[in-house]
Amino acid sequence: MTTMESLIGLVNRIQRACTVLGDYGGGDSSFSSLWEALPSVAVVGGQSSGKSSVLESIVGRDFLPRGSGIVTRRPLVLQLHKTDEGSQEYAEFLHLPRRKFTDFSVVRREIEEETDRITGKTKQISPIPIHLSIYSPNVVNLTLIDLPGLTKVAVEGQPENIVQEIETMVRTYVEKPNSIILAISPANQDIATSDAIKLAREVDPTGDRTFGVLTKLDLMDKGTNALDVLEGRSYRLQHPWVGIVNRSQADINKNINMIVARQKEREYFATSPDYAHLASKMGSEYLAKLLSKHLESVIRARIPSITSMINKTIDELESEMDHLGRPIAVDAGAQLYTILELCRAFDKIFKEHLDGGRPGGDRIYGVFDNQLPAAIRKLPFDRHLSLQNVRKIVSEADGYQPHLIAPEQGYRRLIDGSLKYFRGPAEASVDAVHFVLKELVRKSISETQELRRFPTLQAEIAAASGEALERFREESKKTVTRLVDMESSYLTVEFFRKLPQELERFGSPGERGGNSGERGGSTPAEKGRGGNPVERAGTLMPAASNLDRYSEGHFRRIGSNVSSYIGMIADTLKNTIPKAVVYCQVKEARTSLLNHFYAQLGKKEGKQLGQMLDEDPALMERRQQCAKRLELYKSARDEIDSVSWVR
Ligand SMILES: Nc1nc2c(ncn2[C@@H]2O[C@H](COP(=O)(O)OP(=O)(O)OP(=O)(O)O)[C@@H](O)[C@H]2O)c(=O)[nH]1
After folding, report:
1. Is 45 touching ligand 1 by the criterion CB < 6 Å?
2. How do residues 31-71 score in pLDDT, each as one tens digit?
3. Taking every annotated instance into account, which residue ranges of this chain make up the domain GED (predicted)?
């Protein structure tokens, strides 16, 4: 069932929650304001227009600070809750949640002190409201916001710009479409000069949401009355004007009780020759009821739009939270879990790059298929196995006694010398794959959405992966170098054994001098058989040209044999180097890139883990605000849902 209490109480609760989060009418916020969506009654009037008197009269209690100059310097959100007849009256401040005030002079002092707490004694103003709830059988359910009185001049001790500041603050409250304006003007002053009406006219030209209140009717000159205003002829509003007679200064000085004052006010209208016909629609009690009823109906009308605004904001906040990432747990176990989850997310993407699905892994094959064979092709075997060099190396290996059958030592030296060249392309392959892997790590980190918010962890993963890749590179280099070295440690006997048979097929070495460059030429054994020491001295013998030819052919054949052998080794290494590289680097990176890092993680303490999950402070701040706001909006939604009339 709907009661006024449930509706106004609902808004009261949401308003209080808003204030706790710093969402209040005059505050500036990067979030859309829930407060602004809530209907409220803002009390505006010039200085000494009778604002405080009207509020106290509505409450039926003296509780507002008095004094000269600008007394109200922070908005006072006054929430009135009607309680059962006979129950004790008390007040409560939002900033002092568990304290019940039954002495209203203490409430006045607390308002003064709380005002000074924010504004200092400098008499400045602040838009941060003070929330005061009053529970009493003598009130109607109503929420009013008391604002600083509009003034034309700053008094001693107040900053020059305070006049403008007050106007700006009051304006931020009254210009909101959900604000109901209670415009207070004194009857003993020309209505055309009323500060409250001037402002209301500006922000609410149609007068839809303005309630005109005329105070000090009793202070009008004898023989004059305010009927032109009260009957809407001087200034027309959509709602009827309400005339008020508050306590005079003399009444206040005499401590005239508010209840007595209300009684006197009723009598004034009932017996006034000018206003008796309007008596039932005059006075502070009538005003309170009128406002309560109006506020309730406005809230009722606004609920659907407030609900949809709340739902929309919840959606926006949820998606912003998703974007920002959910908050990180504070305990070490959960932090470790989060870090491992993030590492896994990274590792998954890294593997996708290697295995396919994401680009980049194919560049490794590119190294084996293009770079390695091209580098091997460019090796200077031609130079190393040139006739001149073969002759030089073989002769040096023979020493003073030239070889008789085959230059075994010469062969070995020629082969060893050639094999050394393979180290270059082997190591270059290792390095090339290392750089591909490094680049894939970099890419994977930047593609891991979940890691975006953790720059520190990103750097840690990059460093750990870098170290691991470096270790794999070392290992890989050792392995490929070994592959090359192994080729020198034991030569393929088969290859050399095959050579004599071929020789027999093609005839004697002397006849085949010109074909020495061909594969399958004479064997070292054959050459040895046909050779003698003269071969090496060459020019000293009478048949010099023949011997020269023979000698040249012989060395050419040696060169050619070595070249064939090296060709065979090149084919082998083109296959085995990739195997070693994949085994030592690619497979290791795929299966144990972060193993070392995980082992280190296990040894870290809560604080260190927390540091790894450090985020951009601005982002953390924003998330905190978002989370709080989300909580506010969700609780507001629950509040609204719990009121049955919504259905
Ligand atoms: N006789 C009579 N005096 C009134 C009435 N309303 C207010 N006063 C007196 O006018 C003076 C100013 O009233 P306040 O209620 O303090 O006015 P205010 O607008 O709150 O003033 P500031 O807070 O100073 O801006 C007080 O001395 C009141 O007693 C009224 O209806 N009749």
Report:
1. yes
2. 567 777 788 899 999 988 999 899 988 888 889 988 777 77
3. 555-647
Closest CA to 373 of 422, 433, 313: 422
The listed CATH number (3.40.50.280, 3.40.50.300, 3.90.850.10, 3.40.50.620) that belongs to domain 33-321:
3.40.50.300
**Cα of 243 to ligand 1 centre, how many Å?**
14
Q: Is 218 in the pocket of ligand 1 (CB under 6 A)?
A: yes
- For ligand 1, whether the C-beta of 48 sits within 6 Å is yes
Any ligand 1 atom below 6 A from CB of 257:
no
Whether 325 contacts 613, CB under 8 Å: no
For residues 50 and 184, is the Cβ–Cβ distance under 8 A?
Answer: yes
CA 311 to chain centre: 22
Question: Which tokens is 281 given?
Answer: 């629609």
Strands 96-101 and 90-93: antiparallel
CA of 76 relative to ligand 1 center, distance in Å = 18
User: What confidence tens digit (pLDDT) does each residue in 120-166 have?
Assistant: 766 788 888 898 989 998 888 788 899 998 887 776 667 778 888 89
pTM > 0.90: no
- Structure tokens given for 241: 């004007």
- Sorted by sequence, the CB contacts under 8 Å of residue 14 that are 6+ apart come out as 34, 38, 636, 639
Amino acid at 487: E
Compute, in degrees rounded to 10, the torsion defined by CA atoms 412, 413, 415, 417.
Answer: 160
User: Is any atom of ligand 1 closer than 6 Å to the C-beta of 72?
Assistant: yes
**Which residues, including other chains, have CB under 8 Å from residue 339's CB and lie 6 or more apart?**
457, 601, 609, 612, 613
Strand 242-243 to 96-101 pairing: unpaired
Q: Report d(CA 608, CA 332) in Å as an integer.
A: 9
Fold of 332-614: Four Helix Bundle (Hemerythrin (Met), subunit A) (1.20.120)
In the chain, where the domains are located: 33-321, 332-614
Residue 213: C-alpha distances to residues 186, 205, 284, 591 (Å)? 8, 17, 9, 80
Would you give the DSSP letter of residue 148? P
